[in-house]
Amino acid sequence: MPVKASVIGAGVVGCSIALELQRRGFEVTVLERLGDAGHGSTSASCGIVRRFYSQPGMVAMAQEAACLWAD
Ligand SMILES: Cc1cc2nc3c(=O)[nH]c(=O)nc-3n(C[C@H](O)[C@H](O)[C@H](O)COP(=O)(O)OP(=O)(O)OC[C@H]3O[C@@H](n4cnc5c(N)ncnc54)[C@H](O)[C@@H]3O)c2cc1C
């Protein structure tokens, strides 16, 4: 009989933990107070589009990504 585990929060961290527990044979329940998985700060991080960073490497990568996106 599988061991039961509960994960509170279905953001990227909670879902990753739940997936790994399930792979290891646990019977996992994920509890989420919002409407669905990933509706916390995880969803906000997907929407970010910017070119301003504090490190030159990040600025260059963002600039290149913006050109690829436009193409
Ligand atoms: C605008 C913005 C831009 C970002 N940009 C980036 C980026 O470019 N790169 C990057 O790496 N990171 C970025 N981040 C950070 C990244 O989004 C977070 O570090 C990551 O999503 C956190 O994941 P998490 O699963 O820990 O938290 P969350 O996604 O917040 O998930 C936690 C979940 O737990 C639930 N919860 C909390 N308490 C309870 C409870 N008592 N009962 C039930 N459910 C509960 C919440 O509702 C939520 O859904 C950004 C964040 C924001 C807000």
Describe this entry's structure for a reader.
There is one protein chain. The chain has 71 residues and is α+β, with helices and mostly antiparallel strands. It has one domain. It has three helices and two strands, in the order βαβαα. The chain has helices spanning 12-23, 41-46, 56-70, and strands spanning 4-8, 27-31. The chain has a two-stranded parallel sheet. The protein binds flavin-adenine dinucleotide (FAD). The site of flavin-adenine dinucleotide (FAD) has 18 residues, from helix 1 and helix 2.
What is the terminal separation in angstroms?
A: 53 Å
The overall strand count is 2
The fraction of residues assigned to DSSP E strands is 5-15%
Helix fraction? 40-55%
Heteromolecules bound: flavin-adenine dinucleotide
- Nearest-integer average pLDDT: 91
Structural shape: elongated
Given helix and strand content, the structural type is: alpha+beta
Task: Count structural domains.
Answer: 1
What's the number of helices?
3
* Series of secondary-structure elements, N-terminal to C-terminal: EHEHH
Largest sheet, in brief, is: 2 strands, parallel
Uncertain residue segments? none
Radius of gyration: 18 Å
Characteristic key phrases:
single chain, 71 residues, alpha+beta, two-stranded parallel ribbon, 3 helices, 2 strands, elongated, binds flavin-adenine dinucleotide
